[in-house]
Amino acid sequence: MVENRRAVWKWTQPHFHTVYWYNIRMSKVEQVIKEKFNRISFCLNERSRRIWAASEAKSCGWGGVTAVYNATGISRTTIKMGILELEAKNRLDNNRIRKEGGGRKKLKDINPSIINELESLVEPITRGDPESPLLWTSKSSYKLADELTARGTKVSQRTICDLLKELGYSLQSNKKTKEGGDHPDRDAQFEYINEKTKEFQRNKQPVISVDTKKKENIGNFRNNGKDYCKKKQPTEVNVYDFIDKELGKVSPYGVYDVLQNKGWVNVGISSDTAEFAVESIRTWWQEMGKPIYPEAREIFINADCGGSNGYRTKLWKRELQKLANELNMIIHVSHFPPGTSKWNKIEHRMFSFISQNWRGKPLIDRATVVNLISNTKTKKGLEIRARLDERHYEKGINVP
Length: 400
What we know:
The protein is built from 14 helices and 7 strands. It is α/β, with parallel strands linked by helices. It is elongated and about 105 Å long.
């Protein structure tokens, strides 16, 4: 038995040395291949990576496929496909990465019903079950993927995004477009205001757009929007927006000169009444209007149909008459139809830029409000002046 064992050992010993030497050689080869791949991998596409891996495997000879796989992680199947492509007589066109019809098939081709299933979830009222679990929740791509998976169709969130894009869906917020019933004379009113504005422009008479910006809490409260601060050092504000009894609120009433692109804001600390609105127009004329239009004999006012300058407000009409008598001028007033306040030029030509200018800044006191409004400017030349109106305006004045 001993002699037999020695005979076996003598026979296998040379083979052992051969395998050991081969392993050392291949480990060095793999290290070289790995270094090469790390240098050029950033610029390889699918086809060039496949061809390069196949070329390295062929140059290594026997065991080359395994060596390239160990060094780069490229699958053996890909390497073998590359070798077949190198040895093929009819090669792919240079502009193609893989042959036509190659690569992983899209999920919608494998399972065409996934399109209908997805649409039934996105639009459950019109296309699917009205008791769908996603009817009363946000339809995020993750929830859609989970719901389809629960129904037996395994799909990833990324695939859901691609399918929704192909179906013409995208993330969108609500859009304010429905203004209620359209009165048959609504368009005629817009045309009338437009023609009258052009007439005043030709005659070099002032045209102003007026409105009250929303009331603002004064104090160290959060203001919508973002502003630049030191990293991880945001401006700290109060958690709750309870009104400060001492500072209260302010009511910015704006007057926008349509022809000159200049604005005036009267920052009131009292009630937003018709008396306050007319006083704001009076101060605009004294501070800005009269110097610009010294020869003016008429003023054209564009206003919303509600609020302190509403067309049914008797106090508004009475105070305007007082102003007309005081200035010895004719005052024309045109109100926009109900539900069309966004068409009022002061909204998108002045108030919107004021909101942008003070975004992310707490309105800690009244002086801050006045300064932020006064420093609002645009590239198109908008200039705004503001002042604080500390008068008290009574509410509920009855005009017979």
